[in-house]
Amino acid sequence: MPFEKRVCVLKQVKKGFTADGSALSGAVYAERMGTELTLTPRLLGIAPVKDGRYAIALRAEGRDLLFEWKGEPALKAGDAPSIKGGFAVLVVFLRGEAEPVAFGSCGAADATYEGMLEAVRAVREKKKPQKEEPPFREGAAYDDEAIAECDYFRPREGDADACDAGGDAKTSDLSRENDATSDLFARTEGKLTYYETVREKIEEAFRRFPEDERLKEAFPFSRWVKAEDALLGVVYEGGLPKYLCVATFSPPQGELAEKACFVPFTPYAEGEGVYIIFQSASTGSYVLVGTS
User: Fold this and answer.
1) Is 244 helix (H, G, I), strand (E, B) or coil?
2) Is the pTM of this model over 0.70?
3) Which of 88, 137, 208, 243 could form a disulfide with 235 if both were Cys (CB 3.0 to 4.6 A apart)?
4) Where are the alpha helices (H) located in 127-262, listed in sequence order?
5) What are the structural domain ranges in the chain?
6) Is the CB of residue 206 less than 8 Å from the CB of residue 223?
7) Strands (E), 84-227
8) Which regions of the chain are under pLDDT 50?
């Protein structure tokens, strides 16, 4: 079974997609065993997005593959073209019209990204938008007491977007067309992370509630909003969500009491702080203080 391996170095195309404002850089490592392709993206400092999502487009031997990228360490596709002669990679931001973020090529691949960007935009133009129910119920208020009884972020039973965080991500093949975009939007293989099951609800909270900066000193790479009598937040590592947090001003009761950690707003604010419950963005499991 033939094995191919190549590396493509990426450079920033458009500013505004890093957490600290620096230039985006990175690489994509590609391995092809038989006809199965595995991509390992390494993007330094790429910022999380409140709306929209990232995708990685690959062009090899005149064929285009597009992977929706949610921070997975590896992306896979079957029946993939050979990368022996080189390939090109374009990272795009998808919200409305696709925007180029970073690009690179290796071997004999085209050193320009305009054709790949047009192919992505052409396929997105054909996709019909689907109306989705908002993750918050109309008129519903944040219930501080519910934190002690259940997982606040997980969709409630009966919600249209409720799903099992531990289930396999579905792989679907779109109808193939007789043009260069026939392989676009190939689905990645692997596990669906917990963060993706609750992402819409988190983004809605960030849009709906006011920003709160009081925990930024304790967690510089984080974002918080004040929802009624509590704070909801996401702590990032390497530009990707690592912990989902709910912070209350009084100690949680019941089972979650031992899972909460008191964090002062500043080292000098005696008694001024919140009790934070951390959940892994990958699994949704509660993270105890002092564990990873």
Assistant:
1) strand
2) no
3) 243
4) 194-208
5) 3-126, 194-285
6) yes
7) 88-94, 99-105, 222-227
8) 130-150, 156-192, 291-292
